[in-house]
């Protein structure tokens, strides 16, 4: 199919982008990598009257450590996330997750800001930022605001951004130590997952869990955290009995739905298995680091 007609702008400054968004409001859509938006427009599932192409904006393609967090510019391509040495050192879950996003072409064009703003419930990048904690910097004509990631994802493909805002930067917390794990299950490598889990653990000197984050994706309207499982993990040794209990608990905290790819029950079963697998994997990595 061909897209419905639209006006196209390709501004070269952020001020011009903000002025266009201010002028056209929800009639306008930002175009970044186009890997999610263009299929929707071509199928006429989205019919923006105005497309504002942000690919010519300077200074939004970077990855750097900033005040204890990692700051990622909105126009940073997925391929740059996959190969970043800064991320490999301070937030290795992100480059690890990047290899599962689409294929080479998608990763060369797709942007980190676009992924976060698109808010697909099965998005790897949304899941990592939600699991580790972070914030999104949004600019509008009158100024800017910082949105904590817990308040950012509202529903499938829906975020706290208003039509007059652009996300300029995503900040994600650093990972302490080696005790993390991330894995999803997709029908084929590079497809969107049916279910996925990211885990980051901290252990005290006695081998007890000091901090625990369990993120889940593809099993709810937004990325989710398994807060009850996290609380049950802290202060305890991660033995096989506890791992099975935590996986059961996390499965009760998911909110999967059925679609043509899988039933809700199957997704919950995958999730239970993934939580166990990721906990064992993170624990094994921690023990190897301690040797
Ligand atoms: C074949 C294929 C397979 C894929 N597989 C996966 C996968 O396995 N996992 C996965 O996570 N993704 C997958 N994707 C999606 C891909 O990651 C997209 O790159 C991503 O979802 C959107 O990024 P983009 O830069 O392409 O955004 P665009 O498509 O340009 O925009 C997406 C949406 O975000 C808005 N937007 C873009 N940038 C900003 C900004 N800075 N501020 C505010 N709003 C903004 C746009 O207006 C639009 O509504 C796949 C895509 C394809 C085509």
In words, what does this structure look like?
The chain has three domains: 7-53, Uridine Diphospho-n-acetylenolpyruvylglucosamine Reductase, domain 2, CATH 3.30.43.10; 63-173, Uridine Diphospho-n-acetylenolpyruvylglucosamine Reductase, domain 3; 180-290, 2-Layer Sandwich (Enolase-like, domain 1). The chain is of the alpha+beta class. The protein has helices at 14-24, 37-42, 78-83, 85-90, 93-98, 104-109, 112-118, 124-132, 149-152, 227-233, 240-253, 264-290, and strands at residues 7-9, 28-31, 50-53, 63-66, 69-73, 134-140, 143-148, 153-155, 158-159, 166-173, 180-185, 195-203, 209-217, 224-225. The strands form four sheets. It has a five-stranded antiparallel β-sheet with strand order 4-5-10-6-7. It has a four-stranded antiparallel β-sheet with strand order 11-12-13-14. Strands 1-3-2 form a three-stranded parallel β-sheet, covered by helices on one side. The chain binds flavin-adenine dinucleotide. Flavin-adenine dinucleotide (FAD) is lined by residues 29-37, 74, 101-102, 106, 110-111, 113-115, 117-118, 120, 123-125, 161, 166-167, 190, 192.
Helix/strand-derived category reads alpha+beta
The shape is globular
Shape-level CATH architecture of the largest domain = 2-Layer Sandwich
The percent range for helix content is 25-40%
- Helix-strand string: EHEHEEEHHHHHHEEHEEEEEEEHHH
| Biggest pleated sheet | 5 strands, antiparallel
Instruction: List the uncertain runs.
Output: none
Approximately what portion of the residues adopt beta-strand conformation? 15-25%
Number of helices: 12
What is the fold-level CATH name, i.e. the topology of the largest domain? Answer: Uridine Diphospho-n-acetylenolpyruvylglucosamine Reductase, domain 3
DSSP E strands, number: 14
Cα gyration radius (Å): 19 Å
Kindly provide the name of the CATH class of the largest domain. Alpha Beta
Distance between the termini: 58 Å
Q: In total, how many domains does the architecture comprise?
A: 3
């Amino acid at each position: 199919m061909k897209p419905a007609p639209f006006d196209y702008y390709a501004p070269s400054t952020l001020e011009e982008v903000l002025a266009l968004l201010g002028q056209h409001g929800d009639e306008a859509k930002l175009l970044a990598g186009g890997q999610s938006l263009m299929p929707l427009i071509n199928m006429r599932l989205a019919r923006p009257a105005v497309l504002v192409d942000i690919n010519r904006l300077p200074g939004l393609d970077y990855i750097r450590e900033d005040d204890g967090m990692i700051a990622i510019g909105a126009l940073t391509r997925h391929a740059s996330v996959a190969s970043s040495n800064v991320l490999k050192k301070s937030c290795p879950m992100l480059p690890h997750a990047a290899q599962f996003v689409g294929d080479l072409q998608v990763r060369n064009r797709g942007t980190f800001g676009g992924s976060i703003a698109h808010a697909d419930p099965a998005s790897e990048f949304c899941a990592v930022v939600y699991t580790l904690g972070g914030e999104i910097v949004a600019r509008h004509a009158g100024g800017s605001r910082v949105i904590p990631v817990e308040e950012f994802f509202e529903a499938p493909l829906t975020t706290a951004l208003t039509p007059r805002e652009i996300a300029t930067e995503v900040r994600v917390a650093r990972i302490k130590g080696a005790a993390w794990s991330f894995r999803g299950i997709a029908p084929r490598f590079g497809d969107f997952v049916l279910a996925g889990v990211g885990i980051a653990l901290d252990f005290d000197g006695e081998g007890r869990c000091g901090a625990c984050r369990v993120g889940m994706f593809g099993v709810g309207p937004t990325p989710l955290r398994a807060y009850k499982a996290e609380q049950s993990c802290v202060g305890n040794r991660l033995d096989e009995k506890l791992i099975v209990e935590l996986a059961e608990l996390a499965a009760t905290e998911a909110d999967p739905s059925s679609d043509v790819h899988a039933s809700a029950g199957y997704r919950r079963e995958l999730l239970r298995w993934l939580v166990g697998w990721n906990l064992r994997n993170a624990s094994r990595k921690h023990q190897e680091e301690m040797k």
